[in-house]
Design a protein that fits this description.
The chain has about 525 residues and is of the alpha/beta class. It is built from 19 helices and 18 strands. The N terminus and C terminus are likely disordered.
């Protein structure tokens, strides 16, 4: 029986896609909704019906059929928190605790924005990611330079055929440490302070220019199917209260979401206490900027009271497990989020545990990292629950919303096809549920095909629109050249200021609140 029959004649863009099993989505109580013996009828990139193939052929007799025998079809994954292509480690910055990492990253070389975007898009698509939340970090040069870079980023996603929501992280203050730029520069030796002030000043952009950038990109993006524009107050320490309120008003007026880092580390928790006298989340609540349109990235140090507010306001959270581990930020209380029914997405952030953007691996990590002692299965994430985070949960944090995240009529056809035999070879007992096996065993090599907007953009290890090896060769050639004078200056600056940044936070440790600074699981 068709899940959504249609009597319309097939147009020239109609397509039927068949797989052995189709995971429509995750239902209540983390129950997977799976159908067999069916195919998907796609018209103009949108799912028209899901039914036995003979029924679909009657509805669309001229539609070509793409068969994927032995494959499991799932909704395309959403990487709900992403920044760059080539990773900081690749470009010269080893992992540090987050606050020191900001300084260390000054040594990183610069790469063309389009090439950089394609690099990580290859990795994401190959692991089944069809939509990404791209949060661009600060770059020098002001509005025109940011606009040019954003244009290249958006163009790269359209070129490869990947869906993307773009936002530029708004930073008004405290660009290196958690105090005013001028105050920190004054702590440094005179020459070093002058050089750092010039570097930070080059990244400054008048607040109104951030709003102008959003308006300009939104206007230019009109009519595009694959890309959307939204807003991103970067973090509490980077934004003024006035800026947060203004961005919230802009987002509500434009009907777009916002994505904001929050209490990623214990130092950020302490910053909020010093600035506001309460938690960062309570402060945002008092400002009136929370709600379903707001996604908070990381949220490692949210308290139980904070989570009650998050749940009560319908605010979304994004779990960035790999990043939290790599940068020593802590383990986010995901199980407490789940108990409250908070809409939760998955983000790979700068890079996963293997220094890449592998959503299949990230899902396994999330499944394993939160397996607290006990016997009640409701206490820990299930494989299906993790899939929900990587699909519907992520979709809810983007402007695409309910148009993606599930396979059902009316939604856009973004899907990943996984080769069951490759994922489970040489044996998988049939008593084990399908998603339990796939989440725990599927690797990128078992991703057979990826569809975005009804078009196959990755199949049999090959990207259909862009030649991967040509792009990688261009990147290799660009970075094989010697560092420019500007890059050498930044490299020296990053190395020289790192001890001072470390010293700044050592002072914070000495002056921290009387409760234990690293509160572990007792977040109060």
């Amino acid at each position: 029986m068709a899940l959504s029959p249609s009597d319309r004649d097939a147009g020239p863009s109609a397509l039927i896609v068949e797989a052995d099993r189709i995971v429509l989505g995750i239902g209540p109580d983390d129950e997977p909704e799976i159908v067999t013996g069916c195919a998907v009828l796609v018209r103009d990139g949108t799912i028209a019906a899901i039914a036995p193939i003979d029924d679909l052929r009657q509805q669309a007799p001229d539609a070509p059929v793409r068969r994927h025998p032995g494959r499991v079809m799932l909704p395309g994954f959403v990487n709900a928190h992403h920044h760059v292509g080539l990773t900081p480690l690749q470009l010269g910055s080893p992992d540090h605790p987050l606050e020191l990492w900001f300084a260390s990253r000054l040594v990183c070389r610069r790469i063309d924005a389009e090439l950089d975007t394609l690099y990580s898009a290859f990795e994401m698509l190959a692991s089944g990611v069809t939509t990404v939340q791209h949060i661009q970090s600060a770059i020098p040069g002001g509005h025109d330079a940011v606009h040019a870079s954003a244009t290249d980023i958006l163009g790269a996603y359209r070129r490869i055929g990947m869906r993307a929501s773009y936002c530029y992280g708004v930073r008004e203050q405290n660009r290196l440490v958690y105090e005013a730029d001028t105050a920190f520069c004054a702590r440094l030796p005179e020459d070093l302070g002058r050089r750092l002030a010039a570097h930070l000043g080059a990244q400054a952009m008048p607040f109104d220019d951030n709003l102008r950038l959003f308006d300009r990109l939104t206007e230019e993006n009109a009519g595009e199917r694959l890309t959307r524009i939204q807003l991103a107050p970067a973090n509490l320490h980077w934004c003024t209260d006035e800026g947060l309120v203004a961005l919230d008003a802009k987002a509500r007026d434009a009907g777009v979401p916002m994505h904001m880092h929050l209490v990623e580390t214990a130092f950020q928790k302490e910053y909020a206490r010093r600035r506001t006298g309460r938690t960062a989340l309570a402060h945002l609540h008092d400002l009136g900027v929370l709600g379903p349109h707001m996604t908070l990235g990381h949220g490692v140090w949210l308290t139980e009271g904070d989570l009650d507010i998050v749940a009560g306001t319908g605010t979304c959270l994004c779990h960035n497990c790999s990043s939290n581990f790599r940068l020593r930020s802590g383990l986010a209380p995901l199980n407490a989020w789940r108990r409250r029914g908070i809409t939760t997405a998955l983000g790979i952030d700068e890079a996963g545990l293997n220094d890449d953007r592998d959503m299949l691996q990230e899902m396994r990590l999330v499944l394993r990292a939160h397996r607290v002692p006990g016997h009640d299965p409701a206490d820990v994430p299930s494989p299906a629950g993790v899939v929900r985070m990587a699909t519907e949960g992520g979709a809810a944090t983007t402007p695409f919303g309910a148009r993606i995240g599930r396979l059902e009529p009316g939604r856009l056809f973004d899907a990943v096809l996984i080769d069951w035999q490759k994922a489970t070879w040489p044996h998988q007992d049939p008593d084990v549920p399908v998603l339990d096996a796939l989440v725990q065993r599927a690797k990128t090599g078992s991703v057979d095909a990826v569809y975005v907007d009804g078009e196959v953009v990755y199949e049999d290890g090959r990207f259909t629109r862009v030649d991967r090896e040509t792009v990688l060769a261009e990147i290799a050639a660009a970075l094989a050249t010697p560092r420019t004078d500007a890059e050498e200056d930044r490299r020296r600056l990053g190395r020289e200021i790192l001890p001072y940044v470390r010293g700044f936070y050592e002072g914070w440790l000495a002056d921290a609140a009387p409760t234990p600074f690293y509160a572990g699981s007792s977040r109060t």
